[in-house]
Design goal:
The protein is an all-alpha fold. It has five helices and no strands.
């Protein structure tokens, strides 16, 4: 890993840790539960922020340890971050070979970038759909579109994954935590 890339990753991890901590503190300010003991508005931001901060700090520590172990001239040290003998990602221009940028799933940087744009567009479309269809229907359509369109799953497998994911969300949030879901204009679920 080049020194510039490592420094950028260290900076990004530090920024994510700070943002996660800020979200956690903000969520705590809203309260973790209501007066009646139900889940409060601050639980999700606090939990998400804490998780982001912890994971970013772990990544930051790994990057700092890798920077210490690697000499300053180790520009092609792909495995410094993961410590294994298998390269998870070959960054552009590091090997000079035909596999530049190919990840373990065989995707090129262009394919990964396209997938990112498609997923972001689908998330935006699902968010626009929530007021009309409700959260669970919009989330189900989002998961189905990603599994079929982006991940190229077989339709039957994609429907099974979607059904299991929606069932888990409904059981945890609607039944376990008693969080009301937006039902949208349709008012179905």
């Amino acid at each position: 890993m080049t020194r510039t890339l490592r420094n950028a990753r260290i900076a990004a991890s530090a920024v994510l840790a700070a943002l996660g901590a800020a979200a956690c503190v903000g969520g705590l300010g809203y309260g973790l539960e209501n007066e009646d003991g139900a889940v409060g508005t601050g639980l999700l931001p606090a939990a998400s922020g804490a998780l982001i901060a912890v994971l970013a700090l772990v990544d930051l520590a790994q990057q700092l340890l890798a920077a210490r172990r690697a000499p300053a001239s180790a520009d092609a040290d792909i495995n410094a971050a993961n410590g294994s003998g298998v390269a998870l990602l070959i960054a552009d221009g590091e090997t000079g070979g035909p596999t530049d940028g190919i990840d373990v799933l065989g995707r090129t940087p262009r394919q990964r970038n396209r997938n990112l744009v498609v997923v972001l567009a689908l998330v935006f479309a699902a968010a626009l759909l929530v007021p009309f269809s409700g959260l669970l229907i919009a989330m189900g359509l989002l998961i189905l579109a990603i599994t079929i369109g982006v991940e190229r799953m077989r339709p039957l497998s994609a429907v099974a994954v979607t059904a299991v994911a929606l069932a888990c969300v409904w059981l945890v949030f609607a039944q376990g935590l008693r969080v009301p879901f937006p039902t949208g204009m349709l008012g179905l679920i």
